[in-house]
Every structure is written in structure tokens, then in C-alpha cells.
Design goal:
By secondary structure, the chain is α+β, with helices and mostly antiparallel strands. The chain folds into two domains: about 1-25 and about 160-270, no CATH class; about 30-145, Immunoglobulin-like. It has helices at about 1-25, 90-100, 160-170, 180-195, 200-215, 220-235, 240-245, 260-270, and strands at about 25, 50-55, 60-65, 70-75, 85-90, 105-110, 115-125, 130-135, 140-145. Strand 3 and strand 4 (about 70-75) form a beta hairpin. The longest helix has 23 residues, at about 1-25. The two termini are about 20 Å apart. About 35% of the residues are buried.
Length: about 270
């Protein structure tokens, strides 16, 4: 009966989050493109979407990933990209936002000739904004709704939680060894939760955005997270050592106590498991 209640709660949570997606969603599916394109010319004034400008001279390539879009910009000879010019990344993000009536999560990154990541920023684009301007400088990534030289960075970056990506990639449901992968993921989740500098509100907002981006895969991820949650709660008990040993985590040190980890609880709260 307890298990049936959990399944019911999970399904209800999925239905609520899917409803959110239909009314004001965020979507993120980073499709890797291994064929870089050359740097585009500055856009015409009427084109809606995301523009990128370099304010540093050591960038050899920039990329933008968001929705079903993945683009790379670099010179054919690998030389540094020009600075000071606005590069239009195409209308696809604007069209996707308008078509699905939702905000689209996108990431911009800058890389040196030797492959060193100089910086990366994630933001939300909405068709009502028409144009967003991302500047890559030595101080990091900023995003604004104006291309004026002194325009304020009025589009805040979106916090992302890579720990959720790890859970999604590593945990399986209904297969041999799924409980073992859940325990291993729970250990990582606890270690992340005890070491993160983020507060509960930041984590809750980021987790909600991440969950909304799962779209059709949301229900499956919630099943994975429920397995991890069960393992996490058991790891807070006196049986933690035995559970770790049985899951192939004999080398793991128990550095946490028996009290719930605030950061982990914030994730579970956002997912409707509390």
C-alpha cells in the first residue's frame, strides 16, 4: 500500500509538471553538432533570436546549445574570432519559443584554440524578448535585452544542477542492478548536498527548471529519483554501512550524519517527493 501511494504521488507530480510545461515551459535538449560552422556576419536589425559578441581576443570558437539547436562558430584556420561584432545565431530559438509558447533554455560557451573552456553561461530566451545579447568578456558571460554599449545585464543567468544529469544518466529503473545504481547515485547526491554552497531556494528554483525541461521524459526521471530518494533515506540510518558494502561502495566513507541534508531535501521537494 505504501508503495502504491508513492507511485500515485509520482504520477500526480508528473501530471502537474507537464501542465506547467504546456503553459509556460522551459525546454532543453542539447544536440551535439560535430561539424563547426564559420563565424556568421552581423545580423540584420529585424532578425529575432540570440546575438553573441566577444569582448576578449583569445576566443577561437563559441557555441550555443538550446532547444533542438546546436551551433559552433570558428574560423576555418583556427585563428581567434573577431571582437566587438554582434554575431546572429539564427532564428531557430525564437521560432521554437513562439511555436511552443515557452521559454527556451540555452547555453553559450567560449573556447580557446587548445580547447580550454573560457566560460559558459545559461539563460532563458522568450519570444516576447525578441532579441537577447550575450557578451563574452574576461569577467564572464552576461546577457542583456539591449545591444547598447552601456546596457545593463538585465537577463540573469540560470543555475544548472549537473547532479541531476548524473542521476538521469546513471540510474536505471526495472533492470537488474537498478537498486545498486540508486545507492551509488544517492552517495553522490549526499556528497554534493553537503558540499554545495547553494541555498535551498536556489536549488529549488534550479531543480524546478531542470525538471520542466525533461518534458516527455519527466515521468521516467521521477521514477529514477524515487529510487535514489529511498536509498538516500536509508543511508541516513544505522544500516548505511551495510547498504554501502552491498552496493559496491565499500570504499565510501560515511561523512554525513542521520539528519536530512537540506540541499537534497530541496531537490526532493521540487520533484514532489516531499
Amino acid at each position: 500500500m505504501k508503495h502504491m501511494k508513492k507511485i500515485t504521488l509520482t504520477l500526480l507530480t508528473a501530471m502537474v509538471l507537464v501542465a506547467v510545461l504546456m503553459t509556460g515551459c522551459t525546454k532543453l535538449t542539447e544536440v551535439k553538432n560535430n561539424t563547426p560552422s564559420t563565424t556568421d556576419a552581423p545580423a540584420e536589425t529585424g532578425e529575432y533570436g540570440v546575438y553573441i559578441r566577444l569582448a576578449r581576443d583569445d576566443v577561437s570558437s563559441v557555441y550555443i546549445h538550446g532547444g533542438s539547436i546546436s551551433k559552433d562558430y570558428e574560423n576555418a584556420d583556427g585563428s581567434a574570432l573577431n571582437t566587438g561584432e554582434w554575431v546572429f545565431t539564427g532564428e531557430e530559438i525564437a521560432e521554437l519559443s513562439k511555436k511552443d509558447n515557452c521559454s527556451v533554455l540555452f547555453t553559450v560557451g567560449a573556447v580557446t584554440a587548445d580547447g580550454t573552456l573560457l566560460g559558459e553561461g545559461t539563460f532563458l530566451y522568450d519570444a516576447t524578448q525578441k532579441k537577447l545579447y550575450v557578451t563574452v568578456s574576461a569577467d564572464g558571460m552576461t546577457c542583456a535585452t539591449s545591444d547598447a554599449p552601456d546596457a545593463p545585464a538585465d537577463v540573469p543567468p540560470v543555475l544548472t544542477l549537473s547532479i541531476l544529469d548524473e542521476i538521469d544518466a546513471d540510474v536505471t529503473v526495472g533492470t537488474s542492478g537498478s537498486s545498486l545504481t540508486a545507492v551509488q547515485a544517492a552517495v553522490k547526491l549526499i556528497e554534493w548536498g553537503t558540499g554545495t554552497g547553494l541555498d535551498a531556494n536556489e536549488i529549488s528554483d534550479a531543480a524546478t527548471t531542470w525538471l520542466a525541461a525533461k518534458n516527455d521524459d519527466l515521468a521516467e526521471f521521477l521514477q529514477k529519483l524515487e529510487l535514489v530518494d529511498d536509498a538516500y533515506q536509508k543511508l541516513l540510518t544505522d544500516g548505511a554501512r551495510e547498504l554501502l558494502d552491498s552496493a559496491g561502495c565499500a570504499d565510501a566513507q560515511i561523512t554525513w550524519g542521520s539528519q536530512p541534508v537540506e540541499a537534497v531535501e530541496a531537490v526532493m521537494q521540487a520533484a514532489g517527493l516531499r
